Amino acid sequence: MDETSVRAALTHYFDFSAVHDEGVAHEIYLDDAVLEFPQSGERFDGVANFKEWRQQYPATTVDFDIRRVRGAGDVWVVELRVRYDGGTWNYGVEILEFRGDKVARESIYVMEGFPAPEWRSPWWAEPPYPPDGA
After folding, report:
1. Global pTM?
2. How far, in Å, are 16, 51, 67, 110, 124 from residue 55 at the CA level?
């Protein structure tokens, strides 16, 4: 995999998920893919298991903003922002492990933003983005 291919896979997922076409969105995964949320301790084995609950997701709209993609070979890290039904942006990290051109394992971390502490300002390379993502 390369960065262009990883971004293409994510764009495919986000675009089709946004129009609630989970069948097409989940084409980026292997059938035996594993999805983990380490913050909640959840693990889903097999794309059929997490595709089902994603079809029931309570948010009407989910917006994604890919900030950075880094990695090499079969392991890639994606830094992004996500918001649900037009709410506050949350920050996320996805760790994607590929087998060939499909996702074999995905670990997702999501958290709220927080203001940068002023005491660190003398060392900032540039002023920070506000935590609301403006």
Report:
1. 0.84
2. 12, 6, 26, 20, 42
